[in-house]
Write a structure and sequence with these properties.
Blueprint (H helix, E strand, L loop, with lengths): L12 H4 L4 H21 L4 H14 L10 H15 L6 H11 L14 H21 L10 H10 L5 H14 L10 H17 L1
Helix pairs in contact: 2-3, 2-4, 2-5, 3-4, 4-5, 4-6, 5-6, 7-8, 7-9, 8-9
């Protein structure tokens, strides 16, 4: 139930409510970007970003961005992923990092809000949306990622170039900014990343 056709991307809840796919795609990417920044600040592994991003992309195939704002859902998916992947961070830390990110390009460069009301508001929203996120995901929180198939592929082909393996890994990471994780089997994503890295090396 977690793999959608490319045709389905033209009929998401957000688009049914009037949002263009270009805008929706941008908002999804920005939400994942926030996850990346928060993970770096909190010294969390890549698996947190991958799981959280997958939750977010799945969520917005069933709910609209108009009703469920990306910043709150991004923070909620991120917080949930830290618990599911068993590298938890206190909710207060997650809230603090997301407040630093702001809501637009100008405020993203700021040091974040110091207003206790903003802190409590976002904290409340994360706890509120967590239940909605869990229900929307049908409490099915296990996610298969391309990383393990990619590792097997690198070993099977006896790749000795560390830079090539890192390039393939980076391609998988970058794909999280897109909807590839909900339209393509993880093993196919891994194979594609490997081939792209191989072709770049050949060039």
């Amino acid at each position: 139930q977690w793999i959608w056709s490319l045709q389905s991307l033209k009929h998401t809840p957000s688009q049914k409510q009037g949002m263009s796919w270009q805008t929706e795609s941008h908002e999804r990417s920005r939400a994942v970007y926030w996850m990346v920044q928060a993970a770096i600040s909190l010294a969390l592994p890549q698996i947190i970003i991958a799981t959280a991003a997958t939750y977010l992309h799945r969520f917005y195939m069933r709910k609209s961005l108009q009703k469920y704002p990306t910043k709150e859902i991004s923070a909620t998916a991120f917080f949930l992923a830290t618990k599911v992947e068993e590298v938890p961070r206190k909710l207060e830390y997650v809230v603090k990092e997301y407040l630093k990110l702001g809501t637009d390009s100008q405020s993203e460069n700021s040091n974040g809000s110091e207003d206790p009301k903003d802190f409590e508001r976002l904290k409340h929203h994360i706890l509120y949306y967590e239940d909605i996120l869990l229900r929307t995901l049908c409490f099915d929180l296990a996610v298969d990622h391309p990383y393990l198939p990619l590792i097997h592929t690198v070993k099977d082909f006896h790749v000795k170039s560390r830079s090539m393996a890192q390039s393939a890994w980076s391609f998988v990471n970058d794909s999280l900014m897109t909807t590839l994780c909900i339209t393509t089997n993880p093993s196919v994503v891994a194979a594609a990343a490997f081939l792209i890295a191989l072709s770049h090396r050949a060039i």
